[in-house]
Design a protein that fits this description.
Helix content is 38%, strand content 27%. It is of the alpha+beta class and 129 residues long. The protein folds into two domains: 32 residues; 87 residues, 2-Layer Sandwich (SHC Adaptor Protein). A hairpin with a 2-residue loop joins strand 2 and strand 3.
């Protein structure tokens, strides 16, 4: 009887330890350095180096994670709820950043920001084709 109890306790302990390790690994992936500010939904960027390769080609400074998060927050503050799908560094007139936001109803809006992250312009919401 004691052997059976010891095996049950051992198996339960192993399950708890492995379950805790699984939760820790998942939480690390969710709360990593590229995670946006809570309440801000930012879709993953295809380039994991925290910069836009097109910006490098155009001679612009790389887009940092902090700049991406600040631009995304500013755009979402302007348009309301949605998910940021793309943040690009721009050099078109006074525009320093262009942020694409997918609204909750499926439409997409482009928001142009200055270098101080102030909204300069907002395009009309359009449905994606």
């Amino acid at each position: 009887m004691r052997t059976k109890t010891a095996w049950i306790i051992g198996a339960a302990t192993a399950a708890v330890v492995l379950g805790g390790a699984t939760v820790a690994v998942a939480a690390d992936g969710l709360l990593g350095p590229n995670n946006p500010v809570p309440g801000v939904s930012i879709a993953p960027q295809p380039d994991n180096d925290s910069h836009d390769s097109d910006a490098d080609d155009a001679g612009l400074a790389p887009l940092t994670g902090a700049d991406r998060d600040q631009a995304a927050s500013a755009a979402l503050a302007r348009v309301g709820q949605g998910s940021v799908t793309e943040v690009e560094r721009e050099n078109d007139g006074g525009t320093a950043y262009e942020v694409k936001v997918r609204l909750n109803d499926g439409r997409t809006v482009e928001v142009q920001l200055g270098s101080d992250f102030q909204v300069l312009a907002q395009g009309a919401a359009e449905l994606d084709d």
